[in-house]
Amino acid sequence: CNSCELNEIASSYCFECKCLVCVNCIEIHDHMKSMKSHRIIGLKETHPDDLIEIVQGLNNCMRSTHENEVIIYYCTDCHECICEKCMMGSHLNHKVSKLEEARSNCKIEVSKGFQKLEEKTRSVLDSVQVTENSYNNAVKKIVEARKRVREHVSGLVRVLRDHERDMVSELDRVQIDLRNSILSEKKSQETHLKQLLRATESIHDVMARELDIELLDLQRDITKRMEELLNIPAPNPIDLRVYIDYNGNEEIIDFLKKSDFGRLDVGFTDPRCSEVKNENLNEALTGAGERMFFDVLTKDSEGNPSYSENDNINVRIKSDQNITLTAKISNNKDGTYKVNYTPLKTGTYTINVTVRGEEIRGSPFKVFVATRAEYLQASMLSIRLESSFGEYQTMVPLGFLETGQVPLRRPCGVAVSKRDVIAVADSWNSQIRVINSEGGILRILGNSSDQAMMVHPVDVAFDDKDNILVTDSEKHRVLVLRPSGECIKTFGSRHLKSPLGILVDSCGNVVICDYGARSVKLFTSHGNYKCEFKSPEVNAHGKPPRPCYIAERNSKYLVSYDNDTIQVFDPSGDYLYSVGGTGHGEGRFREPRGLHVDARDRLFVCDSGNHRVQVMAPDGSVRMFGTQGGGEGEFDRPQGVTVMENGDILVTDKMNNRVHTWKMADAWS
């Protein structure tokens, strides 16, 4: 109220006094002859034209000594419209702006909140629609079930009337339950929606009138109301999957009084939310003849366990060679089902799991079946875990290989020829160190001619003539160097983007991990391009992982990838299976890099991110050596590994700029 000093809430407006008045002031008007004829109108009864007149009447300052002063300023500190006298008086040194400028800023702020309010209104409206559709779909199924009920009992005459009444009554009960649960929530949503719409409409009207004083006077109330509405949690839509059906007994005519006429099937199991409990089922590796197990969990639309006798779990297993397997399903009658199957043939198997005829979440799944020998040799599922490195003392550090007077800088690949000549890729020095088994420098390659110049050599390999093959990731090519250091040729610049690991396989092919192209590429011994293959796995962006290093075992390619796996391919480049994964335990990797297979088919893996080397034997046992550090027996990002004729193990210790030598010390060697 602007008429008294009681700070009462205004309920009306006096056009003669040109101010808002409270109930007490109205009574005073009624008892005073000079005021009794004043035109007073209740604020709730105002017409839009009256409202405009009221606001225009508030253009003059309300202070008792400023009646004739026009309001032309706005005090930001006090959130108040003021006149010039106010500005020079009680609002002196306050932050004051012109009314037009304040209005412009106010409209911007209110518009931001108004936009959010509109967005939330649309969101709640969508939620109401989803909830309504959910209920309508449920009712539709109820209607369909009711129709089937009536069709089924139409020929049963009086004997089936009671049954019809019971079934329809049960359906009505289900509908009432759904109505009570869903429509009550819808009513709550609609109430919230009405609040939003009412506020949206009121604010829109205020902004549409573009009355400066009204907008500024109501700014705090508008902002407060918008914040209140925006802070109210938006109700979630109820998208409830309901199964309602009627299962009629077609032979009921012959056994009217003795048979079960039928029963209702009301289920809430949602295939979209049902899942397989075994998270490793997809792309799992197993061996032929190995029994595989997994659990199916049926859930409702909210993710809660759900069970119905008519959920109809079905598991179909088929190989890429059209071999169909029979899956045994055990129903625990609590929403969990145990499934087992035994693949007898190798290949890739697709597993489809359906509930009520619909695929569950994650289905179909892929399982790779290898021979039993391959499974036992290569699968990390058969790794025999051992307690600690200290207990076995399998590997003993021998020291560091002499590599010359000039220190190594970020050594990567290392290889040994049949004559025990060692080649080390000295990456940051842009050269290859050729060393004898005693550690004496034989020669340094890479700086003798323009053709043999290297920028960033990464990996090395020897061919059957003891020529040295080098990948240069910066020049995107492979160099072939004679033992004397002469460059015979270069190849691959047209096909390679950033080559890392290199292998000369048992057939004489040159196999290269093209990190930049995300593929493994094969060249002939003469350097002619043959083909490429990629990992079938993809990352979050839909791209395959990048290959790093490569080795060969039993005519199969083993490739380390930047997704912390080692993947196995046949000689044609067809994917067989993947082992490893991110972790610190045995058989788990972080940034696996250099690979080597020794004469006893043991796979050596430079587990670079874990600062160690893992050794995997054909029987599935695993040993590890090394830990993080700069001393003897320690690594900082091991990069390349190879084994000499006498069994000594050479590991390039990249960040420590050295080549570490090790020896196996127990019967495992």
Write the layout of secondary structure elements.
Elements (H helix, E strand, L loop, with lengths): L11 E3 L4 E3 L1 H9 L8 E3 L5 H10 L15 E3 L4 E3 L1 H5 L7 E3 H55 L3 H53 L2 H20 L11 E6 L13 E6 L7 E2 L7 E4 L4 E6 L15 E7 L4 E2 L2 E4 L4 E6 L5 E9 L2 E2 L5 E6 L1 H7 L10 H4 L2 E6 L10 E6 L5 E5 L4 E5 L5 E5 L11 E6 L5 E5 L4 E5 L5 E5 L7 E6 L5 E5 L4 E5 L5 E5 L13 E7 L2 E6 L3 E5 L5 E6 L11 E6 L5 E5 L4 E5 L5 E4 L1 E2 L5 E2 L2 E6 L5 E5 L4 E7 L5
Parallel strand pairs: 10-18, 40-41
Antiparallel strand pairs: 1-2, 1-3, 4-5, 4-6, 7-8, 9-11, 11-15, 12-13, 12-16, 14-15, 16-17, 16-18, 19-44, 20-21, 21-22, 22-23, 24-25, 25-26, 26-27, 28-29, 29-30, 30-31, 32-33, 33-34, 34-35, 36-37, 37-38, 38-39, 42-43, 43-44
Helix pairs in contact: 4-5, 4-6, 5-6
Q: Can you tell me about this structure?
A:
There is one protein chain. The chain folds into 4 domains: 10-104, Double Stranded RNA Binding Domain (2-Layer Sandwich), CATH 3.30.160.60; 118-231, no CATH class; 269-383, Immunoglobulins (Immunoglobulin-like), CATH 2.60.40.10; 410-663, TolB, C-terminal domain (Neuraminidase, 6 Propeller), CATH 2.120.10.30. The model is unreliable at 379-393 (pLDDT under 50). By secondary structure, it is an alpha+beta fold. A hairpin with a 5-residue loop joins strand 36 (592-597) and strand 37. Helix content is 24%, strand content 32%. The strands form 12 sheets. Strands 10, 12, 13, 16, 17 and 18 form a 6-stranded mixed β-sheet that branches.
